[in-house]
Amino acid sequence: MQIQQNFRKEQWKMLFITMFCYLFFYTGRHNFGWAVKGMTEELSISYQQIGWISFSMLMGYAIGQLINGNLADRFSPKIMILTGGFLSIICNLSISYSNSYGMILILWTLNGYFQSMAWGSGSKLISNWWDSSERGKAFGFYTMAAGSSSVLTFFMALQLVQQEQSWRTLFRFPILFLGFALILFLIIARSHPSLKGFTITSDNKSDSKTQDLGWKDAYKQVFGNKKFIIASFAIGFQSMARYGLIFWVPIHFLGNNYKESSGNLWLTLFIPIGMAVGAISFGYISDLLFEKNRSKSIRTGMVCSCAIALLIYFIPTPHHILAAFLMFTSGFFVYGPQANFWTLSPDLLGTKLVGTGIGVMNMFAYVFAAIGEPIFGKIIDYTGDTSNIFLAVAVICALCTTIISFVKPDINQIIYD
Asked: Among 93, 135, 168, 288, which residue's Cβ finds the most Cβ atoms within 10 Å?
């Protein structure tokens, strides 16, 4: 009984320290959008060039997910997270002293790759500590940390922008918090229960079949799982919709001058707040309301997200209270289901392939997000109306809903393997 209590305590400790560390990772990634206006003015960089910088970072992240997810299965998830975090800090600081488009493009692409070393590795660490019976809850908390990271980054950026600080400070001050979190993670985190003296038994029979797989066979097994690949296409559209809100909605509220739109600008904070609440909520929703049927939970969330995006589109200038509610719910339903996507990796592939699976899935997510960036920009350029962002998001959410409907996991196998 005492051993069980001690394990439970360590289990929560590992989840919370991983969450705390990832809480600050977006300070080195989602800061870029807020630096755009100052960067374009000072360095005479066009918005088209800005789009390519954003595209390159997302592609760097996507490629990194494909590689680093597999590495997390083979090496220490803790070391992967620490390495990626500290290298990301170096990239951000270097950008803050850069004066050329080419240098910023290279550094931001590398930053995308380094940032990719964290998510799959953290997922692997959590899967090592949490079995399938509570994994939805654990991943809900973990995904909430990512959503909360957006809130934190948005808040810091807003403070710096409205204090008329240089765009360079956006790459210097926020990432100091990431450095502090990485130091705590270094001291507290352990990649596996065995490193704390605990012995656990895998809850998935497929693990015994994958334990000794080489890296080629691991990828072959992941890409050979049809349900998992269909789910990966679905998260691609979910991620495209998410980044449509995260990157372009601030531009929608910003207008031509943030000082003239300061009241509306704060409404953007409700999107990541909704995302954070949605992530933790959908972890419980899938486990309790939908009895671990991740696909059904995702489908329900994306249908709601589609409906809310359409509602925002047809009510272009709502009252502030209504606008805040709509921003919150749009973030809640567009991002919340992502917590259910990550649990599909251990559910469909087994815990030994969590890193590889989540890496592949996140690669799809960010390739689609990267492709979506110029599409959103083109829509705005063509129509001259930023509200069309919400119409595009509604269509993308509908596509995600349709695709995920083809993924119907065997619930009994997931629970009892």
From this structure: 135
Measuring CA to CA, how many Å separate 220 from each of 28, 72, 205, 233?
A: 33, 17, 19, 17
Taking only the tens place, the pLDDT of each residue in 185-214 is 999 999 888 888 887 655 554 444 445 567
Q: Yes or no: say if 267 and 327 are a contact pair by the CB < 8 Å rule.
A: yes
8-state DSSP, 285? I
Best CA proximity match to 54, nearest among 69, 41, 36, 37 = 36
**pLDDT tens track for 66-107:** 888 788 878 899 999 999 999 999 999 999 999 999 999 999
The DSSP string of 136-153 is: HHHHHHHHHHHHHHHHHH
Helix 32-43 vs helix 47-74: angle between axes, to the nearest 10 degrees?
140
pTM score of the predicted model? 0.76
Q: Are 398 and 331 within 8 A, CB to CB?
A: no
The number of angstroms, rounded, from the C-alpha of 342 to the middle of its chain's C-alpha atoms is: 10
> SS3 for 98-117, per residue?
CCCHHHHHHHHHHHHHHHHH
Strand, helix or coil at 314?
helix
d(CA 379, CA 376) in angstroms, rounded, equals 5
Among left, alpha and beta (phi > 0; psi -120 to 50; other), residue 46 is: beta
Show Cβ contacts of residue 116 under 8 Å, excluding neighbours closer than 6 positions.
Answer: 60, 61, 62, 63, 64, 65, 67, 68, 84, 362
Position 44 pLDDT exceeds 80: yes
- What's the CA gap between 92 and 104, in Å, rounded? 10
